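Fold this complex.
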Amino acid sequence: MNILRRTALVLAAPVLAIVVAGLLTSIVLLTVGDSPAAFWETILSWPENRSLVNIINEASVLYLSGLAAAVGFRMNLFNIGVEGQYRVATFAAALFAAQAFLPGVLNTVATIMVAMLAGAAWAGIAAVLRVTRGVSEVISTIMLNAIAVSMVAYLLRRTGSREGQTIVTDTIPESSWVPGLPLLPDSVTEVYGLAILAVIAGVAFSVVLNRTRFGFDLRATGQSESAAVASGVNVKRMVLYSMLLSGAVAGLIGMPNLFGVSHNYGSTIQTGIGFAGIAVALLGRNHPLGIAGGALIFAYLSEQANPLGILAGISPEIIAVMQGVVVLCVVIAYEVVRRYRDRLEQRSVAEALDASGPSGSGGSPTKEVTA
Amino acid sequence: MTETTKVAGAAAVSLSGIGKRFPGVIANHDVSLEVRPGTVHALVGENGAGKSTLMKILYGVQKPDEGTIVVNGETVHFSSPSDAIKHGIGMVFQHFQLADNLTVLENVVLGAEKLHGIGDKAREEVRRISKAYRFELDPDELVEDLGVGERQRVEILKVLYRGASIIILDEPTAVLVPQEVDALFDNLRELKREGNTLLFISHKLDEVRAIADDITVLRRGTTVTTVKPDEVSQHQLAELMVGEELPSPSTAESTVTDREVLEVRDLRLTDVMGRAVLSDISFKIHAGEVLGIAGVEGNGQTELVEAVVGMVKPTSGTVELSDEDVTSWGTRDRRESGVGYIPEDRHRHGLLLDAPLWENRILGHQTREPSVKGPWINRDGARKDAERIVEQYDVRTPGIDTTARALSGGNQQKFIVGREMSGEPKLLVASHPTRGVDVGAQAAIWDHIREARRRGLAVLLISADLDELIGLSDSLKVILRGRFVGDFDPKTVTPQQLGAAMTGAQAAEATDPGQQAGNVRRPDQGDGPTDLSTGGDA
Amino acid sequence: MTVSPPQQPEASASLVKPTTARSYRIWLYIGVLLVALSTTRVFTGADDITSAGTLRAAMIAAIPIALAGLGGLWSERAGVVNIGLEGMMILGTLGAGYFTYHYGVWVGLMGAALFGAVGGALHALATVTFGVDHIVSGVAINIIAAGVASFLAEALFTGLPGGGPTQSPSLDRPPTVTIPGLDGFTSDLADKGWFLVSDLAALVNALTARMSLFTLVALLLIFGTGWLLWRTSFGLRLRSCGESPWAAETLGVNVYRYKFIAVTMSGVFAGMGGAYLALVASSGYQNGQTGGRGYIGLAAMIFGNWRPTGLLTGSLLFGYTDAARLRSGGESVHALLLIVGVALLAVAVWQLLRGARVMAAVGAGVGVLALLWYFSTDTIPGDFTQMTPYVTTMLVLALASQQLRMPAADGLRYRRGEAG
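Structure:
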């Protein structure tokens, strides 16, 4: 199949999904008496610079979250615990950074390492349970999310101090802060300095997965565990590494905000990123570029939805509905497209073989049973 | 039994002009078939000839693209198996369609609950049929506790329970040893006596000639001819099936050396419940030697292979490769030291179906040249070598970027064989290496194995194809319930003897003179696999 | 290769042989548990762990989990993994909130079932009709449901008296039932504090006094499922779809149809669980009130080996730990530590006897830790008691996962025409 056809097939599913999701969202709005027209007008208006910066920031954070989930998905592991891992890691990082064992930039770098370790460790619990006792990582990571909330709250109470309505950890020394990037003029907010982590992580993901032996083993295990075992892969070890890696990436999620804006961990930390990341990973089909696209789309929708209440009298929650519907539509669309593509390929293979002469070894493609 | 409303002399089943396409392949075209009522009608053809598809059409699992089906004088259109069942057709699939966690009764009654309910009445009916045909089945036993022969009888019982009078059997003897085949044929003759019509699909010509009244030959999706067993010799039948002469698996001089490549000592493997799956397994394979292991499926062959390859850790015992103790080594390390593995189930263990061929070249070899360089994947190296394999092993594919799924089973297998033989392995573990592969590819694979053996390759061969075993092996062992129960010389052993050892029974006296003559084979007479010919013309 | 049929004990009009041995064992376990709890109560003085109030609360906490698990059971018995139960439960709470406010509790229950069914049907559409991976679809449904619920809650409840953007007004409760005469007698007996007798009295009281009608409905559904799935043709066909859909297909069963029904029904049950949560366990709809019960329900189902009675047992276990912590928080959970520690040590000994040394060591280690914790503290901080249901879930799954048997074709992608 030529490159044009391939690209069209790849994009068909997400585009189709977004269109369908848009339609359904409009219907939901109609049923409660809101105006779809007002909705679309607000959503589709070109964002101001300030909003653009927010979108980039949000997208980079979502990207990291999506990447974390995707590492697991590639191995057929469902790390729903990104939310909890991110929380634990960010808290640990905030505590560590505030202690300032190391000066300045070194502190920043070391803290990022700590965050990755903490996230990996939290994910590791689910991994160990899966590998030793066969406990489904879906349920255990979800449980760990809930446990993380309580545990961090407890530790925060013990180590933090009151600041108005919330409790926060000590502030990180200024020398470790990462300045923002004033990419766009007339913008009150700046792009996170550590947004670059998203790019680095994405490139690393792509390289490791496609060009290294480890990545091959990982993809093989995700595609067919039985074949991977027969090829020499130690699946248990692979599951462990993959979950640890996923948790480590999840640990990065809170870093841009921590070093760029908040400089401490508080009970008002942003929640829901973990789940949004899963949605973004599904939307992007676990591919670094796809996830980037998905992150941008979701960030765009979230940001543009903020003024919905004021401008159109619509609850911003509708965006959550649209995002959810997009995910469902996209996974259905991918399935349909995949099957279509498989059939196309079988047909073209058969045609190519017929053209090249009578086959000495007959038989139909894999569909036919060995008989 | 169902009454067959038939016009006198009319066929029980009549297919004309049947055609069926799948994406990219023509499974059947212009197939015509007349089955006389109350007879056993055999459908023969090699793998991929379209026999299974045709029968699935007759049973309503698939719909024909063109052609007509007439059952007992009535033109029918089946859209699902329930339609076929209503017309008295039942099918016993080659791969048993049974739910392990359900009982015999539940499996039989499923879908036919209206006939006798699902309680005691149904239980009685199952017992009645079982008794009438001497199946000896207990309705409340879990299917997973049954052996292969018993499961097949459950399948036949399912069909009879629904009042089928036209019974299709798809490769029923594929998983049976000769003694079980005899038992099955007795059952079939009993069914015929009761007035049922039987359609028997097979590619084993000697069996077909023993049981069939009429034989229809299918080749490349279309009917070639229909004959009676006494009108045609086995040899002629084989030629009709294949259309050309074929080589045999047998060999001439011995290539066995003294150098030990694999030694297994006192291997023992117990499962989670403490039952012994393998016990006292000891054997040696030398360079240039093929050790064949015969056995009924489920007697430990799979576990033995997995223990040698390193996928499973034995409870006790040692495995040594070239005098090095590898018992604690994992699969990767063993492969790196020169073990190739052709798995029994190529889709589950041999390929990444949705990956391109060149990535499949890397599978199993992802730590060695030419697929890798250090921690990195060497794309060019893998691609070049994939191309080499495609050429050397005559893998029919448009290119190495094609996904493995799109290739036919035979070509997939050839690719796997080519891959596993690369890098000059010292030991090749081949588990059913030509299963589901058509005869041409089968011969090619045998040639490659023989060639490698001449160069000093040691081979552990597991196969259900007794002819393959007898033809390729230098020494033969039989495995039963996890133990070796016999050593045989391939040059002198008969399939009957092997079968007896495989089932632990005394060698049965051949009851059918036709079978007796047909089953004694000398490997060096080279007339082809028993599928196609035997020592003498009948 | 001959099979000699075992003696048939007695004629039975059912598909399944009677399992008398198993029912004996259940009574034994209940007895042991009661004794253990009673002993702990007397030893630690934490009276609330076997009080009628706690036991009743345990049941109330258990039912939503059980209903969610029931949904999971229906779905997985037909071969479809349903991670979206949480989302369907959320939809159920919303439906209950809305319909009860406007039309009363029984319409509220129906409404919740309906909303849950919509979620179930979506999951069925994705997995059965389109062949999407079951877990991916479930996760997507959860995302959608959460969004829909918070959006609709804001739209439907703001402006209503007592309501707001994230909660419904206070709602009616379903009627309760009490067996006359028994209430006074048993609660007096329970107050006496006698070993075992009072605890039994408390148990009886919890079961016979002020039991919500919804609880009875739920129990009916649970036991009814057992009858339906194991003693009828419908049930046989449904289960065959989860054991071997290809075999079922060859026998003329419309596998798609049964899977679709099963998954939609799983949404119905999860939705009803949500209704129970909103109407019996709480006083109305609240954003996020499900708190992971959909997943805990799945854990209960796994614990129960995909059978209704086991499911109920598992749910009661979770319900009990949840109730204990809610009522007297630190004290009760602290006392439970003692039982857990002792139980783990017992399990460790048993594992050692079986030869599983690593498991025994781990069990013993955790057990000792639990006991140390118990003896070195007086109570447990609030944050930790919050975790109790979640930690319990993980513990149960970690201990129980090995001996179970899930439906053979559970989670597999099934497409028509692949049989044979």
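The first strand of chain C starts at residue 176 and ends at 177.
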